[in-house]
Amino acid sequence: xxxxxxxxxxxxxxxxxxxxxxxxxxxxxxxxxxxxxxxxxxxxxxxxxxxxxxxxxxxxxxxxxxxxxxxxxxxxxxxxxxxxxxxxxxxxxxxxxxxxxxxxxxxxxxxxxxxxxxxxxxxxxxxxxxxxxxxxxxxxxxxxxxxxxxxxxxxxxxxxxxxxxxxxxxxxxxxxxxxxxxxxxxxxxxxxxxxxxxxxxxxxxxxxxxxxxxxxxxxxxxxxxxxxxxxxxxxxxxxxxxxxxxxxxxxxxxxxxxxxxxxxxxxxxxxxxxxxxxxxxxxxxxxxxxxxxxxxxxxxxxxxxxxxxxxxxxxxxxxxxxxxxxxxxxxxxxxxxxxxxxxxxxxxxxxxxxxxxxxxxxxxxxxxxxxxxxxxxxxxxxxxxxxxxxxxx
Length: 393
Description:
Blueprint: H1 13-30, H2 52-69, H3 92-99, H4 103-113, E1 118-120, E2 126-128, H5 129-141, H6 146-153, H7 157-175, H8 186-198, E3 206-216, H9 224-227, E4 228-229, E5 234-243, E6 249-257, H10 262-269, H11 271-279, E7 287-290, E8 300-302, H12 311-324, H13 326-337, H14 354-372, H15 375-379, H16 387-392
Parallel strand pairs: 3-7, 7-8
Antiparallel strand pairs: 1-2, 3-5, 4-5, 5-6
């Protein structure tokens, strides 16, 4: 985390340079980075030819401004020893509140993930895989400031940011296929379709639901028109997801600019091509149900459209709408347990990998569903695969 340069009043260039030198020296001393024994407030006396009155004014301003700006950002630098933390450092309650998993399941998650013992950030800093897992889970769980997490993990905020990015990139690169390749879910399509039939879904052969979601972002300085959704009245990026009745998001495509339509996402995702390839040699075809924004095809069906519908068609639409709500529950769980993704002021698309953060949040939520179930799995009485089965796909 770099130094925050305060806004200075109307000072000339020489005064600004002297003030900033003082300010940087103060911040270094506060954070334990300074090797100099020089008194901080003696530093402005650098230019003997400068006007004494200007130096006096500058000195007075420094005396007033330093207490406001030279704060320790909510943590004590001496506590950041860089000693790696481990799951054993937290009790059961702390594990659930900080990481959204029970303590015993964190060990299970670490084994299923097959997290490397030692990992490295793009800047070359090493950390243990166990520590990286905890940092990622804690960061996703709630939109806390990095300076608030520093005492807990004994690392500086800027290092925590590095580790969080390295861990989310590793997770998406290693397990991203679970959200990209729809064909790996082929063996589960029949039992999931039977679960929907048992739940009195009126259309046979449905195995999943499809929908798009817009994730609001902090308003960018450029490309505002591209990211702005006129429908939602917010800047954001869109994702397309396919959710199974067990509560897992089995396919996630994105990001797409916020102004794009769901039918455009479907075409760009090439989901229909994947399904056609999978069912090309199958005798039975299972279907995905979507809202009217999606075109009807051999693999996706939607509700009846139009105003002159028969009573039977209206009744069918009503029953299918109640079933299709399941995909909204999946979106809700991601934001409930990975609340960091719901705080748009932190989601700055030009400064951080927002897409990978969202995908990592979906993967972690899927693994949470494998362990504890969700609203969809209970509503349709459809158990998700075990954590080990999910990670082994």
